[in-house]
Write a structure and sequence with these properties.
The chain is α/β, with parallel strands linked by helices and 207 residues long. It is built from 6 helices and 7 strands, in the order βαβααβαβββαβα.
């Protein structure tokens, strides 16, 4: 699929949830489901994607997408995911903390969004996002076993900064600490309530 210099506006009330945890049914999946369910109640149309269930390669920095605004290096499940990203006005990223950062699956996903930028030949290199200026909104969530937020390392920043560069407004962040056992987060009422609040907020912001 060829991506034009500026994509068509996203569809209102559409939210795409991206999960970066290799543990199916774990805490990140639970949070993502709760956020998306609340968004559905709020009137949004949602879809959930688990990155470890997909077959896709990480970006290799070949720069070929600078020439034709697509990733010609790989024909994999990311190819089918690009149109969903472009269509959705809302985006949710949920990921556990691995070694002070996001998981390898989430990092590979974010790196493969490189083809959604425009570049020019000025020095220093000028760039813009094909998704900018379209009112896109996002929520990010990260789960860690540790007790201190500093031990989450760069996980939230690793999701927030690339999305902001692409033109998303981050309307909410959900850092969750002291949780490890799979699905245990569902037993923490205040965290579930915040996930529902963020889902409802994202629905309002995208409809």
């Amino acid at each position: 699929m060829t991506l034009e210099k500026r994509e068509n506006p996203p569809s209102r009330g559409t939210i795409l949830g991206i999960g970066g945890s290799p543990r199916k049914g774990g805490n990140s999946d639970t949070l993502l489901c709760q956020i998306l369910h609340a968004a559905q109640i709020g009137g949004a149309r949602t879809e959930q994607v688990r990155l470890p269930d997909l077959q896709f390669q990480p970006c290799v920095g070949c720069e070929a997408c600078r020439k034709n605004s697509r990733c010609p290096r790989f024909s994999d499940d990311m190819t089918d995911l690009y149109p969903k990203i472009i269509e959705a006005k809302g985006l949710v990223l949920a990921c556990p903390v691995h070694n002070y950062n996001i998981t390898a699956w989430m990092k590979a996903f974010i790196d493969r969004l490189y083809c959604l930028y425009n570049f020019n030949d000025q020095r220093p290199r000028g760039w813009s996002s094909k998704l900018a200026g379209q009112g896109r909104k996002a929520v990010i969530a990260a789960v860690a076993e540790q007790e201190d937020k500093k031990d989450m390392g760069f996980a939230l920043e690793a999701m927030r900064m690339p999305l902001e560069a692409l033109g998303y407004e981050i309307v909410g962040e959900l850092p969750v600490l002291r949780i490890f056992e799979a699905g245990r987060v569902a037993e923490v009422p205040e965290v579930m309530a915040e996930a529902r609040r963020l889902g409802a907020l994202l629905a309002r912001e995208t409809i």
